[in-house]
Write a structure and sequence with these properties.
The protein is of the alpha+beta class. It contains 2 helices and 8 strands, in the order E-E-H-E-E-E-E-E-H-E.
């Protein structure tokens, strides 16, 4: 209750909400996007943001011109493998007969998923692999750690667009 006993409506209730904006109603079961970006679908492909979609269209044009080659989306790079508990159990039949069984998963694997990868010709005529990540201004701590691990483990510097 506010001063004078007047109860102000909460911005999260249905009463008194402005149309559109951050308080607009959503379909049942859906939740607002964490970074407030708009997903885009085209020809069965889904993009996480309009900016990522626009970059894809630009790279498609570069691919048609021949400036780049081998354009791929959502490429997974392993950074840290999953960690499993040690066991003494061994497979007794099947294709893994005699091999040691994995124990319970203690820590899941850590992977970096690049928005785009492609090959670009350098001035000396050799190809270089480019790994791109489309950023909308927010660089999370997780992303910064994964970017550093990509450079350390794979020797790949991520290009932020």
């Amino acid at each position: 209750m506010a001063k004078g006993g007047v109860k102000y409506p909460s911005p999260w209730t249905t009463g008194g909400k402005p149309k559109g904006g951050p308080y607009r109603r959503r379909a049942f079961g859906s939740s607002p996007n964490k970074y407030k970006n708009t997903k885009v679908k085209l020809n069965g492909e889904e993009f996480d943001s309009v900016k990522e979609f626009n970059r894809y269209c630009f790279l498609q044009g570069e691919l048609k011109k021949g400036a780049i080659s081998d354009l791929r989306r959502q490429v997974k790079f392993p950074l840290v493998p999953a960690q499993y508990a040690k066991t003494d159990e061994v497979y007794v039949q099947g294709p893994r007969k005699g091999q040691q069984k994995r124990g319970k998963c203690l820590e899941r694997a850590v992977d970096y998923i690049a928005d785009f990868t492609y090959r670009r010709k350098k001035e000396d005529g050799t190809d270089e692999m480019v790994v791109e990540d489309v950023k909308g201004g927010i660089r999370t701590d997780d992303y910064i750690i994964k970017r550093k691990l990509m450079l350390w483990i794979h020797g790949i510097q991520i290009t932020e667009v």
